[in-house]
Every structure is written in structure tokens, then in C-alpha cells.
Amino acid sequence: MGDQELLGNPPGEAAVMVPPRSLRSLPPEGALAADRQSRIHARPGLRPLDAAQSARRHFLGCCGGLLGGLALPAHAAGGDWQRIRERGSLVVGLYQDMPPFHVKGQGIDVALGRALAEALGLGFSALPFTADEDMADDLRNMVWKGHFLGWGPADVLLHVPLDPPLQRANPQVQIVAPYYRERVLLAFDTTRLPRVEALAELRGHRLGAAGQSLAGWLMIGAEGGLLREHLATRWPDGVAVAQALKAGQLDAAAGLASELESVLGGDTRFVLQPLPSPRAPRDGWAVGCAVKKDATELAQALQQAMQWLQASGRLGEVFATHGVSWRL
């Protein structure tokens, strides 16, 4: 997508958000990957973080039966898994500026990448990158081919929606090891709104959503545009919107569950609930890991490692550390 201008409007001015090209005329289930694109506001500079660890941790031997399946037999020379093991580190693709998953080397996906590498007995090397025009570009650059400027691909790309249309459109990759289920939520200040059962009840209140996001798209079109004059969209992401709500600048805000929870979770003044819109994906959508289509051994290893992280409680701890409730 490159460096994109923030879609915004001055305080008191009605939202004029035009849905991003990738979101127009799409049903909610088809907009999932597009929303992941639209909410990433990345910066230039595409160098891997110098995070590879010098010593490999022999984690597999300590886990006994839980990860015994990862001790795979020898593979043909040149296979992805064999090359990774010889290198001794797992190169993990991370989206730039996507709070709370990755901002400046910190976040849920960074911690998860480290945990996966550790579970595989490998060091961790992060490859942060700027989102391209659409998800297919990201999968090409970060998973199966590499960028024409010479960087990439990574061994695995995190935060890829397990979306059947996306998978069918990109047969060069496989999406495995789901680790989180995202949803669109509405957060509101109970001192101003005791409860909200329908979006029409928000009319006349100060509302916020990130520009060029699925939450913003749903809000701008809600009730035939009824809320448009009350909706501000000048924030770059749902975390910034939640911060504005917490600061008293808004009465209610829409955003992704991870974004809103990371700021408002645990504060009893606010209620977080599913956005009451028939166009919002009812059960949300899962995100997982993308690898090359023929990287079968790596995909199996990642799947088993993720299952162990989930069973051991480590996955939930990673999310809790960042103020987000883990769900799948």
C-alpha cells in the first residue's frame, strides 16, 4: 500500500470517508484481507531486524511427546525446512505499524514469532515490511517469491486471514496454524451511553473509527448513512481511536477487538461488545501463518508448534501481556 495519507476530518466536521478500493462492493467475508491491508499504515525502510539469536535452543528435546512430531526425518537437500534448520533461525515476516501486533519491534506478533522459533529449536529473525497494494502482493513479496528490490521472502508471514477466497486466489501459498480470531467491536463510555442495542441509538453522539478500515466502512454506511455527520475518521488505527475514547474525546468508537482491548481492557467505564451491524462478520475471522505451498514440512512444524503453544497456555500469555483476550 505504501505510505498512505491518513483519511481524516477536522473536529466537528462530518466524515467523508470513501471506502478503500479493495473494500468497495465486497461482502464482509470477502473484505477481511482487504481490511488487513487498509488498517496498516507502514513506513519505508525494509531491513530485517537484527534479532537472530546466536545459539539454538534445544526446545524440542525438552517437550517430549508434545512436540516429538517436529523431529522430522531427514529431507532432500534444498528443501525449505532443511535450509532453515541449517541456517539455525526462522525468518518471520511482520507487518509494520499494526498495533497491538507490531510497532517498532514490539507487539503480539513479535512475541509470537519468537515463541514459534523457540518451539522449533531455532533462533528468531524478524523481517518487518511495508504492506503493498493488496494481499496478493504481500504474499508474493514475503512468502513465495521475494520483492524485486531484493529483500524477502521470509520463511513465514504472520497475520494472514484464513479466508477461502484469499487462499484460492493465491495457490502458491498455504495458510496454516491459526492463532487468533479477530472481530469488529463497538466500545462506548457507560457514563454517556448506558447501553447500545442498535447503531441508530448512537445518533447525536461523538463517534470515532479509523479511516480506511473495516470498522469505519461499516459505521459510515450504517443505517443508510445516519451516523455520517457524527463520525470522525481522522485516526490511523483503532488503537488511536480507543485512546481518544479513553481521553473523553468520544462517546463511542468502533474498531477491531485487539485494538480496542489493548487500550480499554480492564477499564470498567467502558463496554466492549460486537458491533450491532448485520454486515459485520458475525463470528469474526481467524488469522494464521502463510508459507510456500510446497513447504510441507515447515507447515507441519509450525502447526504442531502452534498447537503446543496453545495447549501449554503460552499463546494466551502472549496476548494477555499486551492486554488482549486470546480467542480462536
Measured distance between first and last alpha carbons: 28 Å
Order of helices and strands: HHHEHEHEHEEEHEHEHEEHH
Strand content: 15-25%
What's the helix count?
Answer: 11
Summed over residues and divided by their number, the pLDDT gives a mean of 81
Broad shape: elongated
Strand order of the largest sheet: 2-1-3-10-4
Which structural class do the helices and strands define?
A: alpha/beta
Low-confidence stretches: 1-30, 37-78
Protein architecture, described:
The chain is of the alpha/beta class. 29% of the residues lie in helices and 19% in strands. It contains 11 helices and 10 strands. The chain has helices at 32-38, 59-62, 80-87, 108-119, 135-144, 164-169, 214-220, 238-246, 257-264, 296-312, 314-321; strands spanning 89-95, 123-129, 156-161, 173-182, 184-189, 207-210, 231-235, 252-256, 270-274, 285-292. The strands form 2 sheets. Strands 2-1-3-10-4 form a 5-stranded mixed β-sheet. Helix 7 (214-220) links the parallel strand 6 and strand 7. Helix 4 runs antiparallel to helix 11 (314-321) and helix 8 packs parallel to helix 9. The protein is elongated. The two termini are 28 Å apart.
